[in-house]
Amino acid sequence: MHHSRLKTLLKTKLLTEIRACLELALPLAGAQLAQSATGFVDTVMMGLLGSAVLAAGGLGATLFTALLISTSSVVSAVSPLVATAYGAGQTQQVGRIAHQGLWLAAGLAVLQLLGLGAAGPLLRLLGQEDETIALALPYLQAMMWGVPAALGFAVLRNWVTALSDARPVIVIMVCGTGLNIVGNYVLIFGKLGLPALGLAGIGWASASSFWSMFFALIVYILSQPRYRSYRVLHGLPQIDPYIFRELLQIGLPIGVLAVVETGMFTITTFLMGQLGTVTLAAHQVALQTAAITFMVPLGISFATTVRVGQQMGQANPLGARLAGSVGIGMAAGFMAIMALLFWLLPQPIVALYLDVENPENQQVVSLAKTLLGVAAVFQLFDGIQVSAAGALRGLKDTRIPMLIGMLSYWGIGLTSGYLLGLRLGWGGVGLWWGLAFGLATAAIVLTWRFGVAPLTQD
Predict the structure, then answer these.
(1) Mean pLDDT, the chain, as a whole number?
(2) At what angle do helices 2-48 and 199-223 cross, to 10 degrees?
(3) Taking the CB of residue 291, how many other CB atoms lie within 10 A of it?
(4) Considering the chain, what percentage of its residues have pLDDT values greater than 90?
(5) Is residue 401 within 8 Å of residue 449, measured between CB atoms?
(6) Does the predicted TM-score (pTM) go above 0.85?
(7) Phi then psi for 127, rounded to 5 degrees?
(8) Over residues 176-182, mean pLDDT
């Protein structure tokens, strides 16, 4: 009797945790998908302006995105700190973390603007052609104006999410995406009596959508009675050295890990380019598809950070372990289904990007289908590693995961990919197996780390 009651209790706790994680993860995954849709639409619109503009825009977008991913990853430290303080019922602390997060965003915005200001010499150093750089610079100079808003939005988005309020995030991000698409059309081609700005128009549209999302989230926070006690936007607060230092201690390793992981895919893309146009085109098809499905476990990962952090704040280590395990399990389950689709339906997937009946595309189609077979394997590991990293973030454990990432992505992923692809002659498929090995290593070691991590409050 006692045994069956215990079993029922555990089942109830598990179902409650799954529901709580899903309530957070679904809007967050939707928000990530909306964000990736913006990049997709931008690329399509750049293509309308011709291949030279597409190359320049792609180059500019890659540089901007790499910088924004690294800086916004640092401010994502707001999430575990707020979740823990909220779980512990520390109202004043929850507000203070938001203030310090906004100070940190301001500092990082200055650094990112300096980086973008040096874009010309930087791109020249990377061996890009002068004509391409000349086309990319007006786009980047327009995008720069949106940086402070993008980082401010990242802070407030992490803040409301950590308070289990993720729905406004998806509403605002979907509206921001819509505004971006309309703005692109109006500013590229000079509609409504405005000048035709071409590629720079895409930059101005993106910058405008960053500001609109930032202000929309501020209005939402100010309009909600539940947020008044936190006094998030009252006056200009002082810098609190203790909280600021803690944000940096947790956030900098997250930023480094994001750079290392993005770097693995970027360097692989450059190596693919050395193997010729067919290989690079097939790589882009498979990578774009994998990037879209990855948005769902990424949303689950953010939700897992919040759930683990809240349980730790409530001094409930077993609840934190359960929250992390549920997040990892959900991400693995979703990616297993995606892996099956990649495995069983490669032809229809490639047909979304290319005319598979055209004989001229046959080499690309054939290689892209092979790469999707490898992607089926790495999908599963990618889902597990990102959600395990999210669970560890909820424990404020970011330094060791950063080292694990460096070893997995660069030490194993890039090295084995280079050896298989370029030294043993496996080509693009070898490089992709390298990615799979790197992600598999990260998935195994990060999950093990969460399983053995001491669950005590610092």
Answers:
(1) 86
(2) 140
(3) 14
(4) 38
(5) yes
(6) yes
(7) 80, 20
(8) 89
